[in-house]
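Practice problem: predict the structure.
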Amino acid sequence: MDETAATTGYHGKDRKAERMKPRLRERLLIVQGSRFIVVGVANAVIGIGIIYSCYNLIGLNYKLSNVLGYACGITNSFIWNRRWTFKSKKNPGREILFFFVMFGVSYGINLGVTVLCVEALGIQPNIAQLIGICCYTVSNFFGNKLVTFR
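Answer:
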């Protein structure tokens, strides 16, 4: 018998602590998912605000306005998801690379699902966009959680 077991009566794994682990993981997933959605809403507001401001107030070309808006939104997304959602303190160079890869993969899923819904399933395009956005959000969250900010 080891010294800890002799003095505390603790023998082997604490079963209660083992049962708590799935609940803690589930709670963390809910917190991270909620934060991810908040960051996503902020990105949308920032992106569309910049797009409209550049186009309507400054008079930039709509394509350049779009690029600038998305660039600001994705930069905001990286910073806040890294710091707040996933609380990463790892190598930002590696993370930004994988962040953009996950963005590309998730966008590809979004576009593929949207096209499939419209062309193969006959779903109205506005509804198909919403389905695609949901697929994008789920794939982007788990891609960033499991790959980018692991």
